[in-house]
Amino acid sequence: MSASVREISISSEPGRAFFLKVDWTEDLGEGFSVTLCDAVSAWNGKVSQGDVQREAEEMEMEREKYIHDLQLALTAEGRQAAGYAFHLSPDSTCSGVLHLSYEKVQRDISFSLGSVELRPVLEPTVVIKDLISYGLQRGARLQASNDQLQGQNQRLREEHDHIKAEMDRYVHGKENLEQELYSRFVVVLNEKKAKIRGLLENIRQLQDELDEKEKSLREGSAGTRIPPRESEEQGETSTPAKDEYEGSTDEEQSQSPPRFQAAKSPARELPAHSSIDDSLTESLTDIIDIAPCRKRRQRHLQGPEVKKATQEVQRKESTEPAKSKEEGRRKASRRSAPIPMDNVEPDDLFDDF
Prior knowledge:
Pfam families: XRCC4, XRCC4_C, XRCC4_CC
Shape: rod-shaped
Mean pLDDT: 74
GO biological process, one term: response to X-ray
Protein name: DNA repair protein XRCC4
Domain XRCC4 N-terminal: 18-118
GO molecular function: DNA binding
């Protein structure tokens, strides 16, 4: 069972205050009862389900829409009740009976939602007592609801303050963490940059050292290299003196091997040179021992060829110092070979016998 009490104003009775109480079971469409009181007298009436259905048909409205407007007109308060009006008129046929009509006002146009017949209550004090009790209970419920809402509001406010404090703490911690991480990042970045600069400097130093070493090696190799022309000139200048010294007399020519060896250059000496001199000395000695008279004639025949062979050997030794002993010995033996017999005179052959 649901009930609603509200204060209404009646346009036909502007100076009087009326209190309207409505009771219903499920909804207003199932029927409801109305009690009207002016704090002195009381009236009550009842609206059946058929009456509600008939009013909806007369209004040509849907039942749900009509019930919604009817509930707003009888139970609404505040701004929602501003669009509805009540009229109270006495019944002309029966004394003491009143008719309460309720209308919907929209843009100065009113639509009748229905009316109820009210009969006077024999004991209005009971109605007044019920209205007072309902008002007190309603106030207590509202106060309890208000207290509950205030408690929830206080709890929500505390939670809000707690969340705000936590958020402030998190934001402060986040800012500190970001600042610390940024400072660490800057330190690490500077260290990496310093290492990279050091490595680049080391690379440049090593490159400079390598360039200097290569330059010094090129200069040293260019300074110690002897041009081929100078070595040939040195060999040519030393050869004529040796030839002139060797080509004097027979006694000096018999002693030429030790002088030929003494004229050698120790700094530029090669192993193949001694073997060549030995072979030449042996050939000359054999010729002198066998036919001493023939040596005078052979000096004129063999002298230029021997000198040329000696000059060629010295020139090749200065330009090609890496030749082996065997190769030098073969060349010396070929150059110091005896004169062919075709060029020998008959007297020389007789002297040999």
